[in-house]
């Protein structure tokens, strides 16, 4: 359910933003968390800050087989954890007001994702991956050593499950902030062909561009 109104001020004078949206997050091993979100000004601003954080990190980019490092993916999620806590502290109770049953807030969504999705992944896999990393010989590079780990595929699968939750959260944040999609954006670039001519291709986060750890 999405009802839109035109806002003034806050840098969104020409943007349409929702009065309310329906949010659904499928948390691994927990189930679906859902509710109606009726954001106020503080929640919209907090949503923008967290959305930018997610949109520019590899935690929302698909970690395909034989691409990227599992350690970088875990480190990115750990950083998002710290950033989210900082946003919650700075905005305070304004982004976590008491609401009727069936409604959610920025604070409730953020804490739910952190505690039920990100924290369990980091608590389980950080020490396991660190133990494997400590076994690396100085003659073996970190990438090769990590890909030889017999639990790499298992961790990759769980990272993907968390990534899908982060994307669902990012979609809700994007809608509430009333901004364009910064994650699925495709920018045209010119790529030279073998014969010297150029053609237009697209680039975006799925290709590993535009994201940081």
Question: Could you walk me through the main structural features you see in this protein, from its secondary elements to its overall organization?
Answer:
It is a single chain. This protein is α+β, with helices and mostly antiparallel strands. The protein has five helices and six strands. The strands form two sheets. Strands 1-2-3-4 form a four-stranded mixed β-sheet. It has a two-stranded antiparallel ribbon with strand order 5-6. A hairpin with a 3-residue loop joins strand 2 and strand 3. Helix 1 runs antiparallel to helix 5.
Summarize the structure.
Helices cover 46% and strands 17% of the residues. The chain is an alpha+beta fold and 213 residues long.
- Major sheet characteristics: 4 strands, mixed
Radius of gyration: 20 Å
Count of DSSP H/I helices: 5
Tell me the distance between the termini: 34 Å
Spatial ordering of strands, largest sheet: 1-2-3-4
Number of strands: 6
Helix-strand makeup class: alpha+beta
Give the mean pLDDT. Answer: 83
- Helix content range: 40-55%
State the order of secondary-structure elements, H for helix, E for strand.
EEEHHEHHHEE
From the spread of the alpha carbons, the general shape counts as elongated
* SS strand fraction: 15-25%
Low-pLDDT stretches are 1-9, 205-210
């Amino acid at each position: 359910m999405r009802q839109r109104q035109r806002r003034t001020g806050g840098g969104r004078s020409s943007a349409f933003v929702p009065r309310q949206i329906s949010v659904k997050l499928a948390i691994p091993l927990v189930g679906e968390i859902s509710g109606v979100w009726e954001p106020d000004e503080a929640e919209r601003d907090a949503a923008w800050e967290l959305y930018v954080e997610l949109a520019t990190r590899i935690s929302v980019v698909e970690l395909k087989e034989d691409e990227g490092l599992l350690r970088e993916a875990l480190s990115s999620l750990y950083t998002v954890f710290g950033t989210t806590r900082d946003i919650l502290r700075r905005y305070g109770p304004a982004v976590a007001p008491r609401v009727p049953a069936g409604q959610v807030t920025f604070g409730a969504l953020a804490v739910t994702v952190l505690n039920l999705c990100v924290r369990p992944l980091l608590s389980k896999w950080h020490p396991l991956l660190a133990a494997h990393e400590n076994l690396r010989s100085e003659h073996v590079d970190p990438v090769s050593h990590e890909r030889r780990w017999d639990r790499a595929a298992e961790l990759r699968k769980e990272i993907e499950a968390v990534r899908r939750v982060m994307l669902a959260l990012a979609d809700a944040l994007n809608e509430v902030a009333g901004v364009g999609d910064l994650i699925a954006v495709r920018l045209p670039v010119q790529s030279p062909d073998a014969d010297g001519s150029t053609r237009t291709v697209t680039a975006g986060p799925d290709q590993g561009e535009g994201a940081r750890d």
